[in-house]
């Protein structure tokens, strides 16, 4: 039986509306992160012109380095439709391990730390893929585990780099255009991940999982292996964040620099154009998401908001960005 013209029109109109909605959201993901950063930067420049004129952009970039690295790892996990609540804790544990091992093993220490943090992330992915534990519950549990391990390993105190820290410190003390190499390390990782996602079968498979996992399975995409890879990349990026923390501070503590980066990293990934529901990510725009989050403390101070309210700002930003960018139609259910 053939459909009448009116029936065909009824089907086509919602399809066109959905396509137009996707195009609008896609456009926002592409330019939104840059627009948000420039808008907040303009506010700061107007209210505190001395800060911008005295190397403020370099300060913002340097302080955004750990956030950027964690956000890139988080973005890869979000892209496959999951979330990693443990990657900031993995990064802090990596920083503590680096501070403890630089003395005994010197140049091998960063390699050991990166291997360890990548393995931690991969374990998360293996449990998710093969035990079918939801990523939120899984990584909420491993968040507590890694925090406890960090407390035990550090002896509940600050761990300082005793020796052989010159190479790591140089990542923060040297740079390009007065911006430390820790930030450029994040930029290089963003470029590498962008190439992976755009030009490789592996990257396209990861995005396909986030868009429609059932369709990806029927298309013979190795969904389990790619989920493990996404979490392993998150662990690797967390290890780099740990190195950036040591390069900047020269020490690590369960309650020091890096202990409160989970919310900023998630916010940076979302502001950077990553979809909370998966299938949409651009590591290059995540750079602007991280810069925006690093700019938030300065912007809140400039407009008279107390420093204690910064977490409130991060939370509000996450809600607003998800509300503005999430795709909706009559047949979708938001859970």
TrEMBL record:
Database matches in Pfam families? BPD_transp_2
The coiled-coil regions, if any, are: none
Superkingdom: Bacteria
Membrane spanning residue stretches: 28-52, 58-78, 85-105, 111-129, 136-155, 175-197, 228-249, 261-281, 286-305, 311-327
Task: Work out whether the entry's keyword set contains Nucleotide-binding.
Answer: no
Location in the cell: Cell membrane
Q: What is this protein called?
A: ABC transporter permease
- Read off the lineage from the record: Bacteria, Bacillati, Actinomycetota, Actinomycetes, Micrococcales
